[in-house]
Predict the 3D structure of the following.
Amino acid sequence: MFERGRTNFAQLQRRVTAGRRLLRLAHEYPAHYVLFDLLADAGGKLLRNLPLSERRARPGAALGRRRSRSLCSPRSG
């Protein structure tokens, strides 16, 4: 959930407990999948020994065409 370019956890919580309002809120506040790091690839190969910069570069390649509602966090911590 993004609002003015930033994540909005409060909006996400509202959607989780929305009940009958869920469809309306999902339309008004679409959810996004935010990736911070990749610890294993699609084949199960562990990537934890790679430098963080390499692990953070991999999610975009793994998502391919599905990136429209997914993104890598610009930074964490």
